[in-house]
């Protein structure tokens, strides 16, 4: 069976040969991931994200630190900021109709896919290396009765089963640091229709700093990823008919999320690296929206 023959039901049991040993490691990493910071935030409203938050903290919603509900309120607030991040990405996809197909490259547990379907009413196809994540995303889609519109598959985002020009828009939400950017944008460029939109939200190292800082190296080691520079994104897009329409530095918008998260009981130990690298300018959180020309 090839990955193109997958259906939602069999996505969980089909384990393809990874394209590289590295991809095998990443599949295992996400199959085994069960950090409370992700599960407990997702439990707030059933949207499970593996990305970070943006926007001002609503201190009134947090209430008093001695409040017996304070931890629950903190979790709800962190989750609100993560969903706000996904809303911003979706806003940049442009005019999407009900008959369009969107592609989420590196879809995780599918939170952004559900939000995209709820916003546009369209089909959303996601790919992840992790069978556990695909199974989770498809189970959520089933529970929401949107399984005919939202589907996750176990598949390499560099070689997808989608037809050339099939997608009205596609995105990477914090998933592009696992792949070579030229290979990635060549595949997005292939599956996007001419005039389609590509959006990424990503962390990238800042060429103005010089080289990846020790904090960036720490983030790479923590997640087994390979953070690219801002320059690499723009160069690889230009080489693949993706022309930036907006480049937004979200660094000041994501710092409040990290400062709040650092005070929670759900810390994972990576908070300091994000906060320090955003503050010293070596690392940036950016949204890039590009037109497929
Ligand atoms: C940090 S998570 C982001 C998940 C999701 N985009 C979100 O915002 O919740 C990274 C995701 O990228 C996926 N990924 C990494 N490399 C991949 C590849 N080559 N092909 C498909 N998915 C990949 C992982 O399986 C994981 O689902
Ligand atoms: C911006 C960068 C560099 C992101 C790296 C990719 C990544 C692991 C994102 C968050 O996943 P997660 O939600 O599973 O992480 P955590 O458990 O820290 O919340
Ligand atoms: Mg998380």
From TrEMBL:
SUPFAM superfamilies referenced in this protein's UniProt entry, alphabetically: S-adenosyl-L-methionine-dependent methyltransferases
Gene3D superfamilies: Vaccinia Virus protein VP39
Keyword Ion transport: no
Residue ranges of domain Methyltransferase type in the record: 103-199
Key words, A-Z: Transferase
InterPro entries: Erg6_SMT_methyltransf (IPR050447), GPPMT_Stmyces (IPR049645), Methyltransf_11 (IPR013216), SAM-dependent_MTases_sf (IPR029063)
Repressor among keywords: no
Pfam family, one: Methyltransf_11
Protein name: Geranyl diphosphate 2-C-methyltransferase
Naturally occurring in which organism (per UniProt): Streptomyces violascens
């Amino acid at each position: 069976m090839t990955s193109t023959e997958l259906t939602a039901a069999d996505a969980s049991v089909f384990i393809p040969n990874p394209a590289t040993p590295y991809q095998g490691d990443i599949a295992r990493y996400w199959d085994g991931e069960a950090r409370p910071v992700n599960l407990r935030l997702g439990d707030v409203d059933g949207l499970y994200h593996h990305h970070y938050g943006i926007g001002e903290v609503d201190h009134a919603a947090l209430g008093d630190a001695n409040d017996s509900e304070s931890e629950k309120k903190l979790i709800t607030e962190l989750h609100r900021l993560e969903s706000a991040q996904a809303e911003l990405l979706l806003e940049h996809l442009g005019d999407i109709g009900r008959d369009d197909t969107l592609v989420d490259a590196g879809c995780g547990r599918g939170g952004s896919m559900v939000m995209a379907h709820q916003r546009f009413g369209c089909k959303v196809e996601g790919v992840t290396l992790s069978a556990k994540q695909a199974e989770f995303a498809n189970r959520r889609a089933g529970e929401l009765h949107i399984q005919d519109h939202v589907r996750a598959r176990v598949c390499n985002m560099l070689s997808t089963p989608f037809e050339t020009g099939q997608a009205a828009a596609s995105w990477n939400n914090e998933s592009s640091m696992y792949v070579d950017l030229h290979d990635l944008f060549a595949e997005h460029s292939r599956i996007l229709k001419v005039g389609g939109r590509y959006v990424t939200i990503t962390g990238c190292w800042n060429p103005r700093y010089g080289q990846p800082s020790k904090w960036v190296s720490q983030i790479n080691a923590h997640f087994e990823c390979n953070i690219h520079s801002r320059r690499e994104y723009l160069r690889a897009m230009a080489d693949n008919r993706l022309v930036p329409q907006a480049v937004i530095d979200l660094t000041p918008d994501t710092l409040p999320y990290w400062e709040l998260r650092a005070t929670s009981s759900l810390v994972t130990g990576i908070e300091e690296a994000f906060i320090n690298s955003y503050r010293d300018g070596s690392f940036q959180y950016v949204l890039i929206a590009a037109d497929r020309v």
